[in-house]
Every structure is written in C-alpha cells, then in structure tokens.
Records
---
Amino acid sequence: MGQIRAGVLLAGFVLSALLLMPVQAVGLKFNLPYAKKLPNRYHKFLCWLIGIKVVTRGKPHDGPCLITANHTSWLDIPILGSLEPSSFVAKSEVAGWPFFGWLAKLQNTVFVERERRTRTAEKRNEIHSRISGGDTLILFPEGTSSDGNRVLPFKSALMSVAQLSIVNSDADREDDLMVQPVSVAYMRLCGLPMGRRFRPYFAWYGDMELFPHLWEAFSMGPIEINVEYHKPVTIREVGNRKALAAYCEDRCRAGLVAALTGRRAAEETEEEAVGEVAMAARKAG
C-alpha cells in the first residue's frame, strides 16, 4: 500500500510541476503579477497532495522581511512556501540540480556560494534589494539540514543584510530591516506522535540521495507539522549580526523543543529573550 501511495504522489508531484513550470516561466519573463503568488498556491497544493497538515502558532510579520528557519528536509520548502508568498535563499549547488533546480529558479530563489566569502556582500545586497522591493525571503542559517530532533548553530554571514535599512516611500522614511525567526517541528505521522525514531525518515541530511528519500517519505503516510512564528526584530534591537544570529537560533531551538516536548518556558517572554541577547552583545562588544 505504501509503495502505491508513493507512486501516486510522486507522479502527481512531477506532473503538476511540469504543467505549471512553463506558466511560471512566462509570468517571470514578462513580470506578470501572478508569478509571485503561483508558487505559494502550488506549495499549498503539494501539502494537500502529500498529506501535510501545517499547524501554525504566532503571526508572520506584516510586510516584507527576512525569515530565518531551522532546516530539516526538502519538505520545509512546500511547508513554509504554503504559508505566504515568499522566495528562498539556497546554496548555489541547488541551481544545478535536475528538476529541483528548475523549480528553485522559477521561485526566484537567491543562490549563495557558501564557500566563497568574497561573494557574501554581493548576495547580501541582492537579498536587501529583493526585500526592499517587497519580497519575503526565507533563509536557513544552519547552512545544512539536520535530523529534525535538534537545531544546529546558525551562521551569521548573511545576517549582515539587517544592517541595511529599507526605504519606506509611503511614510517618507527609512525603516530597519525586519528579521523573523520561525521554528519548524515535525510532529505526527498518521495521527500518532512521530517521535525520534520516525522523524529522520522525513529529514533529509548528510549524504542521503534525494529521490530514494523522497520515495520513502511519500510511502509513509500523512504528517503534521508545527510552524511557530517568533518575535521579529531588527539588528538595532539586539546589537550586531552575531547577536542577531544567536537570537534567531535561540528562538528556533526554543520553539522546536517546546513543540516536541509539549512544554513551554512560561517564565521567559520573547521580549526578555531579545533583551538578554542585546545585553550579551553589549558586553562582548
């Protein structure tokens, strides 16, 4: 039964993508309005097709911003992409992948050469330009994916984009660029708690081959994901890019732990967390 399910889902995934790819390509070429919304609708369709139920907590920032999220799997793309119109920041190797590279390009992904630090400023400016133009971009600061049971350290290099302001033409002023941490937790499989045993079946990390992993995930049944939007901040609030990365990492880790354990640290508000990171940055600086 699982193999039949995987075959049907994989066929639906590929065929739907092949049908929409030329439509999106035309929209991007001629800068048509639907080109920004079509990926969001397609990701909603994928979540329905695969059987992904997304439960959200908190509110997304009202306006363009940089979202920083923990990274578990290729499934993070349709999960986060289904919640609001957005694009992603990905490693440059993704652009060369067959099929998935084309999909990434058609969603206006920003490709980053992580091994070439000399290109960081250039990509930072590209990200800033996109957010200034009204886009929401999603960055995975871990730089790789994990097994879904933990959050890896966040890299701060691209956080320097938050040092640049955004021109608000409506109010005739410059605003600080907003950064919002978002935690993603894989919770249930077929209605039952997924647990540490089954979560790695959906996580894609290490040297796993993509298509065999995709087939295995499709064969296992519907899943439930918790996505929590944490307090958005500016670099001015926390001190510097390293402090910003530390704040985002802390919030994503706290959100993941709270979702997986069902326990929340009620004694600490997110405003207090911002203050603690800012104080630590001042002491270090």
Note: The mean pLDDT is 89.
---
Amino acid sequence: MRIAVVGGGINGLCCAWQFAESGHSITLYERARIMEATSRASSKLLHGGLRYLENGEFRLVREALRERDAWIRRAPHLAWPIRLVLPIYRGARRPSWMVALGLFAYDRIAGRTDLPRATWLPTTQLIDRDPSLRSQDLIGGYEFSDAQMDDHALGLWVAEQARSAGVRIREGVEVREVSVTGGVTVNGETLTYDRIINVAGPWATELLERSGLRSPVHLEAIRGSHLMLANPCAQPYLLEVPGERRIFFVLPWKGATLVGTTEVRQSLDEPIACTDAEQAYLLAAYCHFFPNQRPVVTGSFAGLRPLIHSTNEPGRMTREYMIWRQGNLVSIIGGKWTTAMALAGKVSRMVQ
C-alpha cells in the first residue's frame, strides 16, 4: 500500500516507521525540517502525566506510563529514568493526603515497571539534598519516577529507523491540500496515494479546512514556553505555581536548569516564542521556591501543543487524542510525545 504521511514531528515519524515495518511504501512530507517544531520544544520528559489523573484521564495515563518504560528500553542512550521531588508546603492547593493518593494511583496504574515507586522524604532530607529549596512551611515531599529524554536527538533516531525501514522523507515540501480519495497536493501537483495520514500536529485541522474538509473537533493551539537558567539543577522538581493549581517543572538539562512550562492560547500565525510576560511568570514561580538564588536566563524556547478543546481553561483541557477517518484520509487530532508509538500502532491497524 502507498501511504503519504503529512507531518515530520514525533507522531508522524513513528507512524511512518511502523507503516514501513509492516511492508508499506511510505513517503513523509514535512514543510520545514523534521523535529524542528512542537516535538523539539517539549519539557524533555517522557511521563504518564501525574496531573492528568485530576481530569480523570486514566486511560491516557496508563498508556503513557507503559510507553514511558518502552522508550527507556527502546533507546536507553537517549531516554533515562529520573526521580522528581514534589515538595509539600502548608497551605498548598493540594494537601499531602491528596498527593499521596495520586502517587499511589500513579504507581498502581504503571503496573509492572523497573522504575521505583514513590516514597516520602522528610524536610531535613530535602534540605540536605538541596539547601536552596525554600524551607519555610515545608513539611516534606514525595519522590517519584518518570523519565527524561533528549527530544530532538530521540526524534532524529526514530527518523533514522524509519529511513532504514524504507521511508522516504521529503523535507521543505508543504502539503497544501489533501482529499478523502487519497490526493496530496504539493508544489501545484496532486499525487495519489492509497492512504493519507494527516498528523500535522497543531496544523492538522488547518490542513483539513484548507482542503474544504470539516474537523470533528475544535483544535486549540496552546503555547508552552520554557526558560534555560545558567545555574546547575540540584534536584528535579514538580512544583505548584504559588496561588494556582498549575504545576511547573524544574529539571536538570545539559549542566543547567530547565524551567517550564506555560499554557497560553495563540493563533497559528503568531510567532512561536516565549514572551516577556511568560518569562516573568516562570521566574517568579521559580524564585518563590528558590528565594536565595539569582537566576540568570541564558535562553528560552516555546512550542505549540495541539489540544482538543474541552474547556475554556488550557490547563484542564484533555490531553487525549483522536484518530478520525474520512475515506482514504486518516487525521490525528492531538497527541503526546510519550504516546507517539502507541498512537502509531493504532493508526497502523486502522489502515490495514
């Protein structure tokens, strides 16, 4: 079967790889360069999504935790276990018992895994590990497992597996239109395929609209920005933004500290970049927990998350994805880095 994959992010690359492994002839189209947009601007985590449990997204968390472990086994040189600390402070939006219950569920949903389960750490141990952590009102914290990755390098590794399996990757080629009969319009020419996989991330529904096709859902483009700080990171953290239920990460990254992320709506024609307001927001949250540090920002980056509109609050929008078929056209709406291979498996079974 001749299949066209539209989109060179991690979901498109995983789909192309799996299709080729099944014996199909695959051409992947990317309008710029593979792994240069959303998939490169992640928080560098492969995780189940602890906070998604609050939205009742148990199916997604179960799938993501299984896939987290699979990435570590698949590419241990580019994905590795990490232990994050979630400190508990008096007056926090989530009391200790709620966090404990969530982590218990997280570990139970993970099932059989090589990663250690969550444990409680007393205040003295937390401060011994990281004297810069705010000690006022600190009552202890939980340490739990997830995984970290080099998202760009891991995505390029997937691309190499796809190429080795026979995938033809065409960069710098924009697909202007698609059709339910298998037509792909590039450079003013319409090519015909047996199946088309529209996995263009935040631009998936825009491609449908440009092609005169409807989307079953409204896709929101939510910008997530991150800061790079010069100082080394003593300990990976999951922290609650002061006065909010939002969480953010403080992570070690290449000898420095990665802080993120934000959740801001934007249109597809706006620049994808961290704004001054987002930088101030992240720095204020960081300095609340590390009051004696004087962070030096050495850089920033931002990416667009494709989220299915389910509420007016970006932080509570579903992280689930949708696979929708119209004739010979299959569109993927949404999708997470961690679950890219699981998503690809479902799409592969759908197009047989």
Note: Residues 84-148+219-315 form a domain with the D-Amino Acid Oxidase; Chain A, domain 2 fold (CATH 3.30.9.10).
---
Amino acid sequence: MRLRTLALLGFTYAFAVSAAAQTGTLEKIRKQGAITMGYVDGSSPFSSTDAARQPQGYSVDLCREVASSIRAQLGLASLETRWVALTLQNRLEAVKSGRVDIECSTTTWTLSRQADVDFSLITFVDGGSILTRVESEAGRLSDFNGKRIAVITGTTTEKALKGALERRSIKAELVTVRTRAAGLQLLDSRKVDGFASDRIVLIGVVLTSKTQGAFKLLDEDFSVEPYALALPRGDAEYRLAVNRALARLYRSGDIQKIYDRWLGRLGPPSVLLSAAYFIQALAE
C-alpha cells in the first residue's frame, strides 16, 4: 500500500512539474508565435524610438538578439516581436504582471527588485552622475550643498543619491521628476542646479538636446549601476534561454558591434564593462 502511495505521489509530482513547464514563458511564446518586449522611450542610447516610432537602442538590439535566439531554440520558422511602450515607473510591474515577457531599457539589477522580477546576465555597467550647466563651479557631489538637484522618482538613482548625500552630510534639496526630458528642462531653465541620472544616459540626453553645449557632467560618480534585462520571476527555463543568447553575444564578440553602433562615439567599453563581457561569456 505504501509503495502504491509513493508511486501515486511521484506521478502527481511529475504531472505538476510537467504542467508548470507547459505554462512557462517559453511555452506561451511557442503557442502564441510571438514574444512581447517592453521598452522605455527617452532612454537613448539604450532605449528610444526612431523617426518611424520604432524602438531602437543598445538594450533594444540585445532584446532583438534574444528573440532571434529563442526562435531558434524553440525550432520556430518565425517569431513575431510585439513591442510595448513602458515608463520608468511601470516597467517592472509590466514584467511582474506578465504584460511583457522581457523589459529592454536601463533597469539596474538590485536585490530588492529581484523580490518581484528576475534578471538576465548583466548587459551594461554604468554609474550615477549629475548634469549641470557649464558655467556652474560644481565639479563634485560636495559642491551641491545647499543646491537643488532634479532626479527621476522611483529609480535606483534617486535612492543612491539620497544615500550618498546622507553619508557625506550634504544638504541638497531633491526635486523629483517623472522623465529625463522634464529633468533636463528644469536644469535648462535654471530651476534646479543639477539633474541626476545614469552617466551614459545623461550623455545621450545632452547629445539629443538643442542646447547640448550648455551642460557638463561631474568629475565623479556617486553609484555603480549594473543593467540587466528584467524577466518574470521563477521561470528558470526562460531565464536560461535569455542568458544563452547574451552569453553567445559576449563569447563570439558580436556584442562589440552593438556597442559600437550605439555607444562607439563615446569611446571603447570601460574596464568594468569589458570585464563583465569577458566573465559572462559562458560556455555551453
């Protein structure tokens, strides 16, 4: 009787595991013949839209490579890519709720965020910095004592900046905004003394601004921001499929083509980013 019970329990467990696999993200993609990807406009050179309102950028190209790899892994003749426009505030909830299968912008991998979503291999390493006007004497974070700094609400930059100011006993007023365009507008109109965000993103914002010659960046960063693609939590097979695509890019060196396309004019990859590519070039 005991053997029969154990056999029944084993069958039940196997059925549950099989059912779980069939309801995973890869199976959903296979059945729909489509993968749904989220992007955030205004995050150039990582995630933005072109003149035809189509997603473009470093992170977007990585996600396109992921889609192509998953199509091959699933043995599909074709795979439709459905793009969904998100905001910095709702991007993680979109992944958590299943609205998108993957999020492709400038999301920093943190342990608190990993309680809600999962993450791919690291795709980029950046640092938090502050943009200010060229006539400003500010060159370091300590120069903002008694000043006003714009920062996007709900981002890791906001949290890191608060922590950096507290640790150094710098009394600066933080002015929260919802978009990078809003932060730049406040700085351009002199309503704030600085605008904090990720360094490379700030460079992208300036390069697309009509008044780009009016700004400069601090000489120091106040945080390290490891970017990764946000994925549904608890789906190991899907995460493996995504990481297979990224590891192949790093291993083959094809990541350099994507980097050059979007970031090449800023110089070669940093030592930290080059190390991330090298370490994550995992073998099959």
Note: Residues 1-22 have pLDDT under 50 and may be disordered.
---
Amino acid sequence: MLSIKNEGTTLAYTDEGSSTTVAPMVLVHGWGCDHTSLKAQAEYFSRTRRVVNLDLPGHGESDAPAEDYTMADYADDVAWLCAALGLHAPMMVGHSMGGNILLELSARHPETPGSIVLIDSVLFPSETLIEASAPFIAALAGPDFASAYRSGISRLHLITDEIAAHESVFAALPRAPQHVLAASFVSQLIGQDIVAAASGYKVPVAYVGSSHLLADLQKLKVLVPQLVTAQVLGAGHFSPIIVPDQINAMLARFAAVSGLLQLLTRRVMT
C-alpha cells in the first residue's frame, strides 16, 4: 500500500488505474473494516479509471492516534486526501459508516465530490434501535470488545452470506483498535446530524440498500430530492463482498448517467 502523512498521522491507501476522460473514484470502507472490503470494486473500476481505496484513520494500516473519530473528523480526512492526491470531482462510494462519512463530507466540503453513493449506511436510526444498542455500546468499551464487534457484525448477514463468505472474509475483523471502534460507532449512530449533513446537496446521490434496509429513504428523499435508490438481491450488509457483480453493475450505471443526473440535480436545486 501507499501512504501519506496528514499532520503527523499516516493514511494508507491504494491508487490504481488511470484515465483523463472519466472521473476518478474514491472508496470509503465501513466501521471496523479496511480497504479490502471494497477490493472487488477497486479491481473492477481501476480497469477504466483511477481508483483510490483508503484505510480510514484508526483502521487497517493507517495510524490510530487518540482522537474522537467522529464522522466530521473522518470527512475532513477524506477531503484532505482527495485534495492531496489531486482528485477532481471524484465519484465517491461509501459502504456502511463510509456512507455516513460521505454525507458529512459533502456538507463540509461541497467542492470535493462529483457524485456520491451510499451502500447500506444507517441513516435516521429509530429510538428503539438506539436504545437497543446501549448494551452493545457498553460491550465495545469492555475487555471482550472484539467478540462484541464480531457478534454485532454477524447480525447483519443473511444465512446465505454466512455460507458464501463469513469465515474467509470476516474471521480477522475487527481491523481497528478498541478506542476507534467505540468512538466511531457512537458517532455514526447517535452523534451525527443527518438532517444538517444531507441538506442542500448539489451533486447526484445514490443509495444502495441490502435485503434488510437500514435507512429511512423517504426522509432522505425529502432532504435530497435528486436521490436515486436501488436494492441488492439476496445479500446482507456486506453486499460489496457477497455480490460484487451486482454492486459493480449499479455503480457503473450510476457513473454512466451521472452527467444527466448532474443536470437534473441543478434543476431540482433551482
């Protein structure tokens, strides 16, 4: 992997492919994972465009300093990396917590993305879900946090997902230390103002859900009128790994029509 320092913190990433005719792509993984969870997308799209696939701070091979690990902090880090690498108006794809980060990035750094795709991100969690998460949050702060993490992640799979990939792909998770997992989970679940983050978007936005939808897309549509949505067939939360062909086809179609969607977005915003 490549690396770059941002105010003393090393960020690890891969940078593959090239093109002067299509927008680059930035891939942002989810909570407790690393760039390998979006490896299938990086390999596929780097055939036709430049693709940067990063390890978020505190994850994978990036440094994990003692910080707050909020969605806003992550958004600033990703925007900084885009600027440092000279990525102009990239198509930005975020899985799970990566989508929450991109929501924040688009609000804080509207000049950075050309378009964004959220894959099964938790948006507008219910009070019931937040209350039910209290024991899990406490477990993340305990001595057996890694087991708590894996138990929580397993609930996001379908039975067929377990057969296809659970043992081989997720056995090594989490790929982040305890202080990162605890802080970032709370931030994405209850510390982010989705309404403030999603209001006033001026770029095309897509949401790709799993078989068990984790977002209130009606609420999101009110805030983001240009939103387009899709849902994978027969896959749980880790659809980029379980059904990469479905995800890649959706991303490719979104990229192909992004120019038209940009025009429509401008009309909606005016």
Note: Residues 210 and 232 are 5 Å apart (CA to CA).
